[in-house]
């Protein structure tokens, strides 16, 4: 009986996150929309303060599942104090934006995270127009590294060779435009750039070849691999401002990433594989950081769905929220 219960609970491990994350979306959007209207005649700082708090509540709920489904190992310059930063990372999975949140919550900066998104992602139902809105996350590769997409990797390596740049193995050749625009615009407010390199355990096949990194759905539904996160903190004064020099600097940063990933995946010494060089910290987040947000949003959503009027409002929010979001994105385009 107990074994059956355990197996049933394990089978629900993917259903519960999906139900909660998607199910609470209208609740969050309604709360944000209501505050947007109520704050229309207030100074913008009041709107921004509550908006950041609402955003933090939702992201904390998301992190409840990721923090408790896997192990997180941190290396390098561990984040301590809250800072205004640009976060540069290698891109290999739909989980990557969650990893930015994993670092941000440890600096009490979760409500301030914003992402440079692929253009197509702004059309996501309910979320797209909001997520594309001082913790700026940039993936300079422009698309995810997938070892199975050999044509993409080959094109990236060919471009690097033609430009006289070192060819990279485990990352794609970075593009400088978004990084340069972000840095040039924000340099007066920035403290640093975080150069973040991420690797997942369990992404090598029996032949020792790197496999595709887990998607968000796979991450939650299957046995979750440990996440290894290496952080280099770079003071803004050490970043070149001219685009031509920043391009070279950015490629050099990705050369460092590539060496870290070669060590992680390809080291000849089995004892050095599946970890980055240097000391690691097994970072476990307190439930106090995430559980309250899960309970708040789940309770509000359940309360709404218990009444007929609430259910109608819930459905209308999905439909009209998506349509209004797409219209807003179209107007801004």
Automatic annotation (TrEMBL):
| InterPro entries noted in UniProt | Acyltransf_C, Plipid/glycerol_acylTrfase
Task: Check the record and name the Pfam families matching this protein.
Answer: Acyltransf_C, Acyltransferase
One GO MF term: acyltransferase activity
Location of the Phospholipid/glycerol acyltransferase domain: 85-180
Q: Which superkingdom?
A: Eukaryota
Keywords annotated in UniProt = Acyltransferase, Lipid biosynthesis, Lipid metabolism, Phospholipid biosynthesis, Phospholipid metabolism, Transferase
Q: Name one GO biological process term.
A: phospholipid biosynthetic process
* Family recorded in the similarity comment: Belongs to the 1-acyl-sn-glycerol-3-phosphate acyltransferase family.
PANTHER family this protein is in? 1-ACYL-SN-GLYCEROL-3-PHOSPHATE ACYLTRANSFERASE EPSILON (PTHR10983:SF73), 1-ACYLGLYCEROL-3-PHOSPHATE ACYLTRANSFERASE-RELATED (PTHR10983)
Which protein, by its recorded name, is this? Answer: 1-acylglycerol-3-phosphate O-acyltransferase 5
State the species of origin.
Equus caballus
